[in-house]
């Protein structure tokens, strides 16, 4: 679709298929993350979420009935990262698959000898490169608290990371940002986290971040939006890079919030 046609279509969607105001307000009220945003930011999010609902296909499986409450909740949370970037950052894939709860995923991987093995993992979310985004509805509902744990933010962050290839912890950076500064900030934080984990100390991010640089980025994004004070205190250079990337400063919003951090143990992907 050309840029002109897409803009025309989006204008029409906003005029005809806008998420109803009452439903939107109920979804906002159920999510502390959205409640603490300014009214203009919530309105901007309303437009983005309306477009996301129209442009993606939502599939409930394993018996889950997907209705406006589910699609609006997922779209509202999923559009937080692109609030200042625009919906085009989510182009190139079309499906959002929702399980009632955690699900089992089968992955094939080669060993050093080139032999293919199959592994079954219990997951609560998954993002495929160029493919669907998969979520557990139970964990979306359970992730309402501002505790640095949000499976929707996590999986959509992977989608941003995948815009320039595999999820390696570095999405395409904006003009004026430096790959060297980004790499230095994340590498230093990664090394600190490894050392803290080895010493048995409390970690700034959930231990799952240490699975890979891609997971470190996705978990850092969850904490950036939900507990910005924690990320800023623990890894100020990472906070600064994410602030520049997302063009948002969640610290400005959260000064009045009462956030609690809890260590997390659930498996993600
Ligand atoms: Zn992940």
TrEMBL record:
GO terms for molecular function: aminopeptidase activity; metallopeptidase activity. Pfam families: Peptidase_M90. CDD domains: Peptidase_M90_mtfA. One of its GO terms (cellular component) is cytosol. Signal peptide: none annotated. PANTHER family: MTFA PEPTIDASE (PTHR30164), PROTEIN MTFA (PTHR30164:SF2). This is Protein MtfA. It comes from Nitrococcus mobilis Nb-231.
């Amino acid at each position: 679709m050309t840029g002109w046609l897409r803009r025309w279509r989006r204008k029409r969607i906003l005029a005809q298929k806008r998420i109803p105001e009452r439903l939107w307000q109920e979804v906002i009220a159920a999510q502390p993350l959205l409640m603490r945003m300014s009214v203009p930011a919530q309105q901007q999010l309303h437009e983005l979420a309306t477009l996301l609902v129209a442009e993606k296909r939502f599939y409930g499986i394993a018996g889950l009935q997907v209705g406006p409450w589910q699609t609006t909740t997922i779209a509202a949370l999923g559009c937080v990262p692109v609030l200042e970037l625009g919906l085009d950052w989510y182009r190139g894939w079309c499906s959002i698959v929702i399980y009632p709860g955690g699900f089992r995923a089968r992955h094939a991987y080669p060993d050093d000898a080139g032999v293919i093995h199959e592994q079954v993992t219990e997951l609560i979310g998954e993002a495929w490169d160029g493919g669907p985004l998969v979520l557990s509805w139970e964990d979306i509902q359970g992730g309402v608290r501002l505790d640095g744990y949000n499976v929707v933010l996590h999986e959509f962050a992977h989608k941003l990371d995948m815009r320039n290839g595999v999820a390696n912890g570095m999405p395409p950076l904006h003009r004026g940002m430096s790959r060297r500064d980004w790499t230095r900030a994340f590498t230093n934080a990664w090394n600190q986290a490894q050392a803290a984990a080895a010493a048995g100390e409390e970690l700034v991010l959930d231990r799952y971040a240490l699975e890979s640089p891609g997971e470190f980025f996705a978990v850092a994004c969850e904490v950036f939006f939900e507990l910005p004070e924690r990320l800023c205190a623990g890894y100020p250079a990472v906070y600064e890079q994410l602030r520049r990337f997302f063009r948002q400063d969640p610290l400005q919003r959260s000064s009045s919030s009462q956030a609690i951090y809890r260590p997390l143990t659930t498996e993600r992907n």
